[in-house]
Specification:
2 domains, 4-stranded parallel β-sheet, 7 strands, 243 residues, single chain, Rossmann fold, alpha/beta, 10 helices, 3-stranded parallel β-sheet
Length: 243
């Protein structure tokens, strides 16, 4: 069985990814069993100046450190439960020692399995307006819908000032649910919870649209990869999502 490396960027999302991977292991393998998992947690505070300045090389320094840490600990591949981080991870994929399982590829593969075509997207401002999901959705013929500018600002602030810091206010949940309602009114058939902390407050029970939980899906596919017998391929820096 392969060893999974979890490269934490924001700690709440990484913690949810870890516990989900363990629970998915039990579901697939039996009581008390899951793949070996190692984790790195370079503080996100070190990367924030780089994000704010759009200096991706500065962010890449710390993400590379996190990947190297799990590789040194024996990981065969890594997952990073942080959607925004994949902007930079895509740029450094060829320079890190082990391949990754790409969060947007996992999510979009799952969307394709369910047949939705018009996809609402929530996340940080970098995720909602950036290239990661735009590219991943487009290459599968899927349409991306994002909230209006004012709502994107509210969502981005809530993610960094509340959710990533373990602050969960009912009014913030209502704001996220209102954003989903608006996306539905514009024709979205589902919504990607494209920040790994959003699933802590939004789920299938309170959302007016079917949700694609990027955190739990990444953990689920990581376990599938770990138990599969296919060899690791370093050619592109990313593992194919076919399991």
């Amino acid at each position: 069985m392969k060893t999974v490396g979890i490269v934490a960027h924001s700690f709440e999302g990484a913690a949810l990814c870890f516990i989900t991977a363990c629970r998915e292991g039990v579901a697939q393998l039996g009581a008390h069993m899951h793949p070996r998992i190692v984790m790195s947690a370079v503080p996100m505070a070190l990367s924030m100046p780089g994000w704010e300045a759009d200096d991706y090389s500065a962010v890449g320094k710390y993400l590379s450190e996190g990947v190297q840490m799990v590789a040194d600990a024996g990981a065969d591949f890594y997952v990073c439960p942080d959607n925004t981080a994949h902007i930079v991870l895509e740029q450094i994929a060829g320079d890190v020692p082990i391949p990754g399982l790409h969060i947007a590829d996992v999510v979009c593969h799952e969307i394709n399995q369910h047949g939705s075509k018009r996809v609402g997207l929530l996340g940080t401002r970098w995720t909602m307006t950036g290239p990661v999901y735009e590219t991943a959705l487009k290459k599968r013929g899927l349409e991306r819908l994002v909230p209006d500018e004012a709502t994107m600002k509210l969502i981005n602030t809530a993610i960094f000032d509340e959710l990533c810091l373990s602050i969960f206010n009912a009014s913030t949940t209502d704001m996220f649910l209102g954003a989903i309602d608006d996306l539905k009114s514009r024709g979205a058939e589902c919504v990607v919870l494209g920040c790994t902390e959003i699933p802590l407050i939004v789920n299938e029970k309170n959302s007016s649209l079917p949700t694609f939980d990027s955190t739990r899906l990444l953990a689920k596919y990581a376990v599938r990869e770990a138990v599969s017998e296919r060899p690791i391929d370093m050619k592109s820096g990313w593992l194919p999502v076919t399991v």
